[in-house]
Specification:
mainly alpha; globular; ABC transporter involved in vitamin B12 uptake, BtuC; 336 residues; two-stranded antiparallel ribbon; 2 strands
């Protein structure tokens, strides 16, 4: 693991931040209707509506959701010392998806007159919290969070959530079944500015906490015995990382559904490019994940224009082959 200087940290993150901003600006102009810089400065109210009311919340949500999934993927992989760990393997996203499906089947999407916030994201976030508590209770044995039990509990819980969602989709009406299918594909459609900013607040705070725990993640990735010898409180660090990353995952799933492969592929790509120091890997994954999801969403909008393709289809279609290429070349699958 190469020594990480403050200057090197800032230079690398500054370059990634610039890349994420450039991707966001490009995504604002892409869609069913191309908006050139000249039109942007024309003062046309229709252009302003498209940019500020439709695309800007979506682009911000893409930055925060993609960043959350990638940063949490990096943290989970270090926490469990497993290269296949991701936000969707541990069951938290499955609980959120089940919550959203329940809201759809119960017909609660339209029942928002008494509440200023959408019902479906609230149910999704509540489902993530319920899954978090369930998995944490199962994996906490002997007063500490056991990584091997955590992974197994997440996989089993995820399988159970998927089976319940399959049953609910089976008994739902045709319209509800179609809505469930659309949600399960993952997408950034219909996100309001309020939802994007609330998601951003949760995700940014969580990323700061995970970055601050980067040194401890470095030590944990070497094994618990090494962590204990170096004075790292392994049990406390595992608990904090799991809870914070799960809350970030819940916030992301609540607004965008289960967007595949961003949390698995991006952290590996970052490690191959920038090294395995999690003080850099976590924030770099956040910036890279945001850029990837924003670009993927823009590509999905253009590819299906004038309709709209769920971005989760595109991230899975591109992420899976790219990850297989890394595995085939022996350039992925090692933590750290």
């Amino acid at each position: 693991m190469n020594a990480l200087t403050p200057r090197g940290w800032l230079l690398r993150l500054g370059a990634l931040l610039l890349l994420a901003l450039l991707c966001a600006v490009a995504a604002l102009g892409l869609g069913a209707e191309w908006i050139s810089p000249r039109r942007l400065l024309s003062g046309d109210p229709r252009v302003a509506f498209i940019l500020l009311d439709l695309r800007l919340p979506r682009v911000l949500a893409g930055l925060f959701v993609g960043g959350a999934l990638a940063a949490c993927g990096a943290a989970f992989q270090a926490l469990l010392r497993n290269p296949l760990a991701s936000p969707f393997v541990l069951g938290v996203s499955g609980g959120g998806s089940l919550g959203a499906v329940l809201a759809i089947v119960l017909g609660l999407d339209a029942a928002t007159a008494w509440l200023p916030l959408p019902i479906r994201p609230l149910f999704a976030f509540a489902g993530c919290l319920a899954a978090l508590l369930l998995i944490y209770a199962v994996a906490r044995q002997g007063g500490r969070l056991r990584p091997e039990i955590l992974l197994l509990a997440g996989v089993v819980a995820n399988a159970f959530f998927l089976s319940v969602m399959g049953f609910l989709q089976y008994v739902a009406s045709p319209h509800q079944a179609q809505e469930i299918l659309r949600w399960m594909m993952g997408g950034l459609f219909g996100i309001t500015m309020g939802a994007a900013l609330l998601t951003g607040a949760i995700v940014l705070a969580g990323t700061v906490v995970l970055t601050a725990l980067g040194r401890d993640l470095n030590v944990l990735s070497l094994g618990e015995e090494t962590a204990v010898q170096l004075g790292v409180p392994a049990a406390r660090v595992r608990r904090r990382v799991f809870v914070v990353a799960s809350l970030m995952t819940g916030a992301a799933v609540a607004v965008a559904g289960p967007v595949a492969f961003v949390g698995l592929f991006v952290p590996h790509a970052v490690r191959l490019t920038l090294g395995s120091d999690h003080r850099l890997v976590v924030p770099a994954s956040f910036l890279a994940g945001g850029a990837v999801l924003v670009l993927a969403d823009a590509a999905a909008r253009v590819a299906a224009s004038p309709g709209e393709m769920p971005v989760g289809l595109l991230t899975a279609a591109l992420g899976a082959p790219l990850f297989l290429v890394l595995l085939a070349r022996g350039r992925a699958g090692r933590i750290p």
